[in-house]
């Protein structure tokens, strides 16, 4: 439903083909609580928790084949913790630690078969030293 032009309460929207497009609770026009978005094939595209419209907690984004593409923990919309990205085949692509949306510590990158091939250290979002190739 809408109140004064803003989404309010439980909102469920549909793709033209009748499949659910998004569902979640809105308060004062902002997402609140668990929010989900779907591809038109019915597979989950995004799921995450929101507080006052900002991402808070574990966020997951999926490829349209259902495989996870991205997962991270956010606090007030900023990445805090390990951000993991995946290839469409499900293998890990990268793992990077973040503190308040800035890269911190060792970032690891993998090839499509899941083999570690690159490591880069970061401090306050800036590269430290040379990258290490494995």
Automatic annotation (TrEMBL):
Task: Please name the Pfam families in this protein's record.
Answer: MORN_2
- InterPro entries, alphabetically? MORN_2 (IPR011652)
Q: What's the protein name?
A: MORN repeat variant
User: What Gene3D superfamilies does the record point to?
Assistant: 3.90.930.1
């Amino acid at each position: 439903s809408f109140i004064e032009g803003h989404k309010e309460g439980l909102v469920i929207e549909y793709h033209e083909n009748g499949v659910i497009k998004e569902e979640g609770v809105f308060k004062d026009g902002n997402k609140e609580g668990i929010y989900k978005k779907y591809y038109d094939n019915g597979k989950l595209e995004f799921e995450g928790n929101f507080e006052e419209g900002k991402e808070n907690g574990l966020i997951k984004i999926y490829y349209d084949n259902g495989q996870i593409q991205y997962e991270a923990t956010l606090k007030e919309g900023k990445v805090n913790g390990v951000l993991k990205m995946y290839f469409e085949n499900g293998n890990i692509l990268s793992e990077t630690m973040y503190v308040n949306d800035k890269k911190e510590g060792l970032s690891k990158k993998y090839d499509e078969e899941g083999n570690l091939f690159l490591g880069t250290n970061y401090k306050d979002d800036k590269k430290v030293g040379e990258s290490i190739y494995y």
